[in-house]
Amino acid sequence: MKELVEVIAKALVDDPDSVVVNEKAEGKTTVLEVHVADSDMGKVIGKQGRIAKAIRSVVKAAAAKEDKKVIVDIVQ
Fold first, then answer.
1. Which pLDDT tens digits describe the chain residue by residue (76 residues)?
2. Cα–Cα distance between 75 and 63 in angstroms, integer?
3. Exposure winner among 48, 57, 60, 71, fewest CB in 10 A?
4. Radius of gyration (Cα) for the chain, nearest Å?
5. Hey, how many other C-beta atoms are within 10 angstroms of the C-beta on 71?
6. Helix (H, G, I), strand (E, B) or coil at 65
7. Mapped to the 3 state alphabet, what secondary structure does 14-57 carry?
8. Taking the domain 2-75, which CATH number applies?
9. Domain segments of the chain: what residues?
10. Secondary structure of residue 75 in the 3-state scheme
């Protein structure tokens, strides 16, 4: 899942080298923290959070195939 989120985030931003995805396992749940440059934050979140919601939907669908629960957090 980490690689999937990295590929999507790097495709959206102007500075793909600044994209960092950290993976934390919390019981049955995996939390993916996405860090991007401040100038690219709006591109990853999108208007009214539409792009962030789409990223979460794609990851949720991929995780459901593997019977896992994955949460995507976009942090500054």
1. 899 999 999 999 999 999 999 999 988 899 999 999 999 999 999 999 999 999 999 999 999 998 889 999 999 7
2. 21
3. 48
4. 12
5. 15
6. helix
7. CCHHHCEEEEEEECCEEEEEEECCHHHHHHHHCHHHHHHHHHHH
8. 3.30.300.20
9. 2-75
10. strand
